[in-house]
Amino acid sequence: MIENNETIDEFLARHADEVEEAVRKAAALEIMPRWRRLAAHEVDEKAGPHDLVTDADRKAELYLTDVLSAMLPGSAVVGEEAVHANPASYEAIRGEAPVWIIDPVDGTRQFVHGDPGFCTLVALAHHGVVHASWTYAPADDRLATAVRGRGAFLDGERLYAGPPEPGRDLRVATSHPDYTTDEQKHALLGLRTPGVAPRACGSAGLEYLAVARGESDATAFSWEAAWDHAAGLLLVEEAGGTHLTRTGEPFRITGDNDLPFTAARDAATARQVVALLSGEA
């Protein structure tokens, strides 16, 4: 708990390892025992056939909500499944209390299909600023962490995104067409140009990790749900990358962004992608 008016940075210095332990334990108790073992009654649709939820999502989120709330008394939680049940709970992101932002299984479609491309995302934010994040890929037992101003790490090794290699097509992960408006589809068509190799994204959290590692050059996403973006955006920032909306401003987890937006390995790549999305290149 925060004691004697300590700052969030001081809280993280004392408890970051405990958050990591909670993320790993949620996966070990609620997610991995169900991977490739889901029964039909454990999978439901939310908005449609591409928007799935499983018992693993629900139970892992409940576990993390209980543990993280107890760890930081007075904090709020914005979890994907809780917001689906009560959309008004999303407003905690704009509130005065520190907020845990949780996506228990990012990449639920992949999880349901037995693919290892899913992860658990947790971020701690306050007043719209993400202070720390945890990205855990349990099928591969890979954990990426970031604390604002202290760098990004994958399994304890420092991450540096670095600029893309000169002369090679930019590798850009983009929103699936099912999740875009007609205007956003038109904007994303700007990436279909020589020198850019766009592809449909998988788990957003793992796409951000790929950018932070320098395995991918940028993302171009068209939705704002903070649980998909908060952890990864900080990871990219702390690896030396950046993120921009089409207005040239950083993406805000509190919303009202000009979409699509990008997260990229470096500022020059971010500006290039934004120009293409805006029809200015």
UniProtKB/TrEMBL annotation:
Q: Which reaction does it catalyse?
A: a myo-inositol phosphate + H2O = myo-inositol + phosphate
A Pfam family cross-referenced in the UniProt record is Inositol_P
Annotated PANTHER family: INOSITOL MONOPHOSPHATASE, INOSITOL-1-MONOPHOSPHATASE-RELATED
Q: What is this protein called?
A: inositol-phosphate phosphatase
Biological source species: Streptomyces thinghirensis
Q: Which domain of life is it from?
A: Bacteria
What Enzyme Commission number does this protein have?
3.1.3.25
Which InterPro entries does the record cross-reference, listed alphabetically?
Inositol_monoP_metal-BS, Inositol_monophosphatase-like, Inositol_monophosphatase_CS
Q: Which UniProt keywords apply?
A: Hydrolase, Magnesium, Metal-binding
Specify whether Nuclease is a keyword of the entry: no
